[in-house]
């Protein structure tokens, strides 16, 4: 392992300066340890929001039976593309009234946010008060509701868990047309806990009350290089145990693997001072810019899927067809190196994004049962690889699914999946899902999770 930035210094080579960071984080304390309790919405806002909810509920109830319902959203970060059967009827629900921040309360450090609000707008609103959501996904167009129902992760996730773990309350239009408020301890606690990883198949989150944490004006980054995956995973486990690395507090951690002997962890600490600053947003690094504008990338992939352009081009050039391998998986840190070695040998795509996480709560979330207390590493990869001769589309994705299961991991469901129904329900808690579906969408108004995520309906 080498430290590419020099001990205790800022990571830009032409300007050096020393900044001391306290290795123990004081941020992200559990609710109740600092700020006041969340307060209800101011009256005027409440009234306008209730009118929007009533109007949406009416529109939903008026959708004729047999017609599929979709959210009319400007952007999406789903990499599953639906094959709409000919003649099928679809109604787009106008949810534009739920795409803004309703209220930020600096005293209780909470915000009430429309379910379809993008993180870009959410972060803008909270930063005005010196606060940020506990987890801010890198892709700006991801919405709060999308990240909670479809799971999210980012470089604060080792310290603060996943976006759904800083939700205090959710107002949900359920599949059977009711509007309920679900919290961790009310009569809809089952929906509160089962909503993450339900992908809009139990209902739609219309507003969410979330916790926020204070920010500092700067983040001090250090990049650490590793020459093998084993040492890199050991470093992540150490950061998980100690909250810092080489004396540098780990408010943020993520990393990148370019090859088995070139891996980096980037460790960030909030800082009140900065001898100089840098902003990667302007650098246009290709793979990072793809992730930054995943909605654009998604449109390009969708266009290619519809017209088969890259396949035709490869055929004309005498090249093998290529398979999209666009996935995020979570593997226990103790098995992470095995996964990276498998991935390099059998899939061979780089770079791979690494993002460590640990649940913030001490209870598992039923539909995505990560073990409380365990450190996982999320490996994200978004690209295409050539298919070996005689192999059909899905070959590499199936290998990934099998390896994830063998290593005791989990796979996110925003992209393609190939599981049999039996494998799927064994991984995503079939009995818990069945009970929730029965209670909140007994008439099957919304697609089921397997139909939506694997069959692409
Ligand atoms: C290339 C790529 C990189 C990614 N990187 C990250 C990352 O860095 N960090 C991260 O956290 N995540 C990442 N994701 C995953 C992303 O967070 C999920 O795909 C998320 O569900 C997308 O949310 P969205 O708001 O764009 O929703 P959409 O893509 O529009 O919808 C996702 C699903 O959620 C449902 N849904 C949307 N809004 C609601 C709502 N309000 N209530 C109920 N259901 C709803 C939709 O019906 C749909 O099934 C990545 C995905 C891709 C493709």
What does this structure look like?
The chain is an alpha+beta fold and 457 residues long. The protein has a domain at 31-214: Uridine Diphospho-n-acetylenolpyruvylglucosamine Reductase, domain 3. Helix content is 29%, strand content 24%. It is built from 14 helices and 18 strands. The strands form 4 sheets. An 8-stranded antiparallel sheet has the order 1-10-14-13-16-17-15-18. Strands 4, 5, 6, 7, 8 and 9 form a 6-stranded antiparallel sheet that branches. Strands 2-3 form a two-stranded parallel ribbon. Helix 10 packs antiparallel against helix 11. The radius of gyration is 22 Å and the shape is globular. The model is unreliable at 1-24, 26-32 and 289-293 (pLDDT under 50). Flavin-adenine dinucleotide binds at residues 71, 73, 76-79, 115-116, 137-139, 141-143, 145-147, 149-150, 152-154, 199-200, 204-205, 291, 294, 326, 382, 414. Flavin-adenine dinucleotide (FAD) is lined by residues 71, 73, 76-79, 115-116, 137-139, 141-143, 145-147, 149-150, 152-154, 199-200, 204-205, 291, 294, 326, 382, 414.
Layout of helices and strands, plus pairs?
Elements: E1 2-3, H1 43-61, E2 68-72, E3 90-94, E4 101-105, E5 110-114, H2 119-127, E6 131-133, H3 144-150, H4 157-160, E7 167-174, E8 179-183, H5 189-194, E9 203-214, E10 218-226, H6 229-242, E11 244-245, E12 248-249, E13 252-259, E14 262-271, H7 286-292, H8 294-307, H9 309-316, E15 322-332, H10 336-346, E16 352-357, E17 376-386, H11 395-406, E18 410-411, H12 421-427, H13 430-440, H14 449-453
Parallel strand pairs: 2-3
Antiparallel strand pairs: 1-10, 4-5, 5-9, 6-9, 7-8, 7-9, 10-14, 11-12, 13-14, 13-16, 15-17, 15-18, 16-17
Helix pairs in contact: 6-10, 10-11
Bound molecules: flavin-adenine dinucleotide.
Flavin-adenine dinucleotide binds at residues 71, 73, 76-79, 115-116, 137-139, 141-143, 145-147, 149-150, 152-154, 199-200, 204-205, 291, 294, 326, 382, 414.
